[in-house]
Design brief:
33% of the residues lie in helices and 18% in strands. With 107 residues, the protein is of the alpha/beta class. Strands 1-5-4-2-3 form a five-stranded parallel beta sheet, sandwiched between helices. It comes from Faecalibacterium hominis.
Length: 107
């Protein structure tokens, strides 16, 4: 079971360089807005590209999507692949901090 993490806990880890955010939405959603520095790994690519995008299976990875449904699914799949430092951040809709992107579309 992958542990949930609050945005407040996540921003502390990200700011300290102790974790990496991973966005499991689609590329067009990522382009609209994402957590600064986040890596993109669409849910449909988790089984085939995880090791490419997330090479260290023991690092702290903060998985998020739009509302939390895809992040929970992705976290389960990643855990099954041997990732140990996973935290489910849930959805970017509840992220109160800085977001980078083109903001032309909507979340």
């Amino acid at each position: 079971m992958v542990e949930k993490i609050t945005p407040a806990e996540a921003i502390r880890l990200l700011d300290a360089g102790k974790a990496q955010a991973v966005d499991v939405r689609e590329p067009d959603e990522f382009a609209v807005g994402h957590i600064p520095g986040a890596k993109l790994l669409p849910l449909g690519d988790v089984l085939t590209r995880a090791e490419e995008v997330m090479p260290d299976k023991n690092a702290q990875w903060l998985i998020y999507c739009r509302t939390g449904r895809r992040s929970a699914d992705a976290a389960q799949k990643l855990e099954a692949q041997g990732y140990t430092g996973l935290r489910d951040l849930g959805g970017i809709l509840s992220w109160p901090y800085e977001i980078e992107g083109d903001f032309e579309g909507h979340f």
